[in-house]
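Page 42, continued from yesterday. The earlier attempt failed because a stray header line got pasted into the input along with the sequence. Redoing it now with the clean sequence only.
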Amino acid sequence: MTTTTEPAVFRRGLQVLALAIRTEPRAFALGTAGTVLYALATVGGSVVLGRVTDRVVLPAFEAGEVGRASLAIGAAAILIVAAVRALGILGRRYGAYLMQYRLQAVFRRRVTRQYLALPIEWHRRHTTGELLSVANADVESAFFTIAPLPMAIGVGVMLLVTGVLLVLSDLFLAAVGFTVGPLLAYLNWNYQRRMAVVATAAQELRSDVSNVAHESIDAGLVVKVLGRETDETERFRDHSDDLRDRMVELGRLRARFDPLVEALPNVAILLVLLVGVWRVQNSDLTPGDLVQFAYLFGLLALPMRVFGWLLGEFPRSVAGWERVERVLDASAYQRYGEASGGGGGGAAIDLDRVRYHHPVSRGDAPPPADEDEHTRGVEDINFDIAPGRTIAVVGPTASGKSTVAQLLVRLVDPDRGELRYDGAALDSLARPALARDIAVVFQDSFLFDDTVRNNITLGEDVDDARVVEAAQLAQAHGFISRLPQGYDTPVGERGATLSGGQRQRVALARALVRGPRLLILDDATSSVDSAVEAAILKGLRESELPATVIVIAYRRATVALADEVVFVRGGRASARGSHDRLLEEVPEYAELLTAYDHREGDAA
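This time it went through. Structure tokens are written below.
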């Protein structure tokens, strides 16, 4: 495994922090102001403590009694310093966590918007688990360093002020105490070097675990029906164990590092006290100066721990940010024009020598264009459709039928050739016009965990009459009316409470309620019986919906309802004509439909 060098990790970590500060400057300013206030109050507390020792504590021992006025002044000074420190802690923590959580929210939204903007082709090259991990765990890891950032800045101020006071208090003791600095710096460097490799590997494993979990849950029916629960559990356990081992390794590194960081300053304090007592006995220091010095030096342990914590999170932060950055920097956008569409009536469609091959590789880079044997799609496909016509696209499996549907709704763009919509290039349409004028219903009908009505309208302001009309046209109104709450009945996740045919009809109603000018049915009625399918297509022909309809189907009764049939084979439109003519003149077409009729009859 190749790893980023320590200087590169440090530099990239600083770049992530700089980005965070530019994104949330106000929250950063609040946290920094709080931590600087805390730092100054903490250092000021050492001065107060030294003065109280010399002017209150020692005189009290010498006199055998405590003066109430001096005791009250000393106590008030200590309480004021404590109150200021508490206020600083409040500002520091509020600002730090406000900044951290806002950044996570901002970049989760950016990643999600990027997912929505990137074409389906890009998504096919990345697993769902990987994409979920980027939006969740990687964003969280990228900005995990924000929590200690304001404190690190504050303790930096504390370190500077403390160092100056130590030198002014006693140069000899300062030299003795500062010997711990190089040792702590070495520990931090060694920790960074070891952490970089393990943190990067752990972040990759988080994505693997997320992907396996998503696959197992998404394929729950397959897993249960085929009795694969044990195998899926073992697969998830293997990936989880790998992640656990990496996280344990991280914990072991931290367990070796943290005690040393804690111990070294304390050892130095003991050394300072031993030397300091000798200096007090020689009258080179007062007891108050020694107390102040020891307190100040004790403060140095905190900056070292905070810097160590911050630097220790750099590898994890950089690993998470680089995965987020790869998504945000992806540039495979589809460009849209400004055309508003062709107005009313059905749309005229023209495919002119269109070629498109689906990529099958995973990762950021698509496969080479010459890997034809590893791709599928269409090759030089040509046909046109007059406005208002119903065309059936028929062909064997993997002949390119669904690819045609995806091209017509611009889920993908052709590698070459042109698609024209009412005589204009399809990519000249504005995005709203495309969504308004063209609707597609796929075989796998996705429903949201919401009511039937909201699955049809998708949140748009559509009156009830239009919803019912679309459902009637999709032959869905009958079964919807019999549901416990009618159109307000929740359908469960992915429409789990409905049958496959019911889900398809709700999805069809969702497309019809928008009154599209081009309606594409990609095997969208395969889960309903032949009579219902025929009623749907007959209703579409007889309705006032002026749409041009493209039906991708196999059933003879369905195909026979079309005005014309396009037979697709090998990614090309090899024949075109009426259903009866193709049955007589194209043996492959007749064989395909006859074979399907036989299979359907055997199943019945």
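Notes: The mean pLDDT is 78.
Reminder to self: strip header lines before submitting.
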